[in-house]
């Protein structure tokens, strides 16, 4: 799975781009930083974990081998070597090598392999890309300027050329450039059936766009296991989604706290006086 591809997907959809950062913020809300792991380090690693399903830390030790501090290593550039060591890919084809005991690797277990972590949202990637395609199509549809707002049809044989020019000018100025351009047509002595418009898949007059956006949005949210009330979704009924504080508390307990437990493995390497802690979500 391409790390660069996963990173670029964050810009393909509004919900997919904000949900991992929101989950990172919830994780940081419960995080109590220490001299061994700052909030800045944990925040960057937590975002890596949400996006790539894994996070990397470099162990900084003193002269007797005690781990005093953890430094974040960008997961997008990290690779595992055959012998268990690690390498960071640098610009211009350069590499920075780490021995196995220099790196702390936090990963979400994958049933197919145990080398890299895998994010949970991969099952929703097709919905994510379909959502992006629908938005791009809609945008191009409005930007191409090829569709008409209306047709101003006349069949008056006595309409002078000067009046025709004035009508064309006024109609052209009635809308901004590229936005529902209108057309003026004069056919002297023509019939009312002289011009007909046969639409071919006109998305502006159907609800396909809204249906695609709604269905794919729900799939993306489900892939992230995110409650709609916390994902910025507007409720479709007057009752809303219920008590937001209860939703937040349940979601934090069921989703965020288990993730924080995975990061607790870092405390096993840090010196006792430099370990971090987590707040009790029930008291927040």
Descriptive notes:
α2 (14-29) packs across α3 and α4 runs antiparallel to α6 (208-223). This protein folds into two domains: 3-120 and 236-283, no CATH class; 148-201. It is elongated and about 100 Å long. The chain contains seven helices and ten strands. A hairpin with a 5-residue loop joins β4 and β5. It is α+β, with helices and mostly antiparallel strands and 284 residues long. The mean pLDDT is 85. It has helices spanning 3-9, 14-29, 39-52, 125-143, 161-172, 208-223, 244-263, and strands at residues 31-32, 54-61, 67-73, 78-80, 86-89, 95-98, 103-107, 148-154, 181-186, 277-278. Strands 3-2-7 form a three-stranded antiparallel beta sheet. It has a three-stranded antiparallel beta sheet with strand order 4-5-6, with no helix packed on it.
Which descriptors apply to this entry?
single chain, 7 helices, three-stranded antiparallel β-sheet, alpha+beta, 284 residues
């Amino acid at each position: 799975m391409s790390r660069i591809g996963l990173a670029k997907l964050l810009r393909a959809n509004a919900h997919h781009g904000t949900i991992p950062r929101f989950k990172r913020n919830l994780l940081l809300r419960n995080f109590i930083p220490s001299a061994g792991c700052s909030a800045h380090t944990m925040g960057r690693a937590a975002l890596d974990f949400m996006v790539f399903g894994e996070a990397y830390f470099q162990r900084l030790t003193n002269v007797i081998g005690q781990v005093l501090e953890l430094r974040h290593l960008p997961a997008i550039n990290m690779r595992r070597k055959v012998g268990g060591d690690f390498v960071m890919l640098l610009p211009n084809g350069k590499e920075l090598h780490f021995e196995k005991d220099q790196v702390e690797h936090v990963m979400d277990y994958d049933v197919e392999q145990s080398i890299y972590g895998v994010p949970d949202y991969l099952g929703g990637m097709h919905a994510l890309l379909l959502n992006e395609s629908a938005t791009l199509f809609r945008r191009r549809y409005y930007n191409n300027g090829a569709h008409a707002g209306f047709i101003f049809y006349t069949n008056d044989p006595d309409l002078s050329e000067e009046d025709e020019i004035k009508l064309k000018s006024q109609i052209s100025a009635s809308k901004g450039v590229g936005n529902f351009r209108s057309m003026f047509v004069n056919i002297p002595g023509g019939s009312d059936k002289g011009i007909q418009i046969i639409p071919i898949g006109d998305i502006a007059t159907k609800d396909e766009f809204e249906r695609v956006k709604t269905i794919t949005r729900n799939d993306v949210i489900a892939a992230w296991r995110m409650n709609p009330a916390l994902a910025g979704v507007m409720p479709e009924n007057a009752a809303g989604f219920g008590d937001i504080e209860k939703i937040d508390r349940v979601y934090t307990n069921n989703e965020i706290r288990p993730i924080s437990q995975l990061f607790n493995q870092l405390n096993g390497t840090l010196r006792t006086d430099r370990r971090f802690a987590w707040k009790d979500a029930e008291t927040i």
